[in-house]
């Protein structure tokens, strides 16, 4: 399995270095993807149509985002995977990271948002966020900071977090009504 992970990672990272414009774009997407997605979620708070349901989805996306990143911190207590550039697998286009490679926080965060929207029935926005999540995840491998397996693990953690939130944070409950009526 490790050989497949390395092969996929090398294939994607091997695309880097051939076009300065694409390299710049991938570095930019990697750096700004998560904040842009978070802003896209937050700006929907004042959306007019079906405001109560949309706000529930937005809060669920926020909880999924936070839970996913929290789960990553637990995983990092047990799994200490070196970055692919430290193992000579990739060429790095950005500064080195001080933390471990598995799972990818960027993938976890973006896939948690997409999954929350999809699981709560906001399909159009959910698929748009899913496309953005795939782009961010791809960029993390392209720039050399993650193995493909790190990104897959992060995506899985994000989806699991969204499933947990779906099971616990119910629409129409007293807590939900309190949160969604703010502003």
UniProtKB/TrEMBL annotation:
Residues 56-166 form the Phosphatidic acid phosphatase type 2/haloperoxidase domain. The keyword Membrane applies. SUPFAM superfamilies: Acid phosphatase/Vanadium-dependent haloperoxidase (SSF48317). Signal peptide: none annotated. InterPro entries: PAP2/HPO (IPR000326), PAP2/HPO_sf (IPR036938). The chain crosses the membrane at residues 25-46, 58-80, 100-119, 126-145, 151-169. Keywords: Membrane, Transmembrane, Transmembrane helix. Pfam families: PAP2 (PF01569). This is Phosphatase PAP2 family protein.
């Amino acid at each position: 399995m490790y050989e497949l992970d390395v092969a996929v990672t090398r294939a994607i990272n091997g695309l880097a270095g051939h076009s300065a414009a694409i390299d710049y774009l991938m570095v930019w997407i990697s750096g700004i993807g998560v904040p842009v997605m978070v802003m896209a979620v937050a700006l929907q708070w004042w959306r007019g149509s079906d405001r109560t349901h949309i706000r529930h989805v937005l809060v669920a996306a926020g909880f999924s985002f936070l839970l996913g990143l929290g789960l990553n911190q637990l995983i990092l207590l047990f799994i200490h995977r070196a970055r692919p550039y430290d193992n000579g697998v990739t060429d790095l286009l950005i500064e080195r990271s001080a933390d471990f490679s598995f799972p990818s926080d960027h993938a976890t965060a973006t896939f948690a948002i997409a999954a929350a929207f999809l699981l709560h029935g906001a399909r159009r926005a959910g698929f748009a966020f899913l496309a953005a999540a795939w782009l961010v995840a791809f960029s993390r491998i392209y720039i050399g900071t993650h193995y493909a397996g790190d990104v897959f693990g992060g995506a899985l953690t994000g989806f699991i977090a969204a499933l947990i939130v779906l099971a616990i944070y119910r629409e129409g409950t007293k807590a939900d009504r309190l949160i969604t009526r703010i502003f």
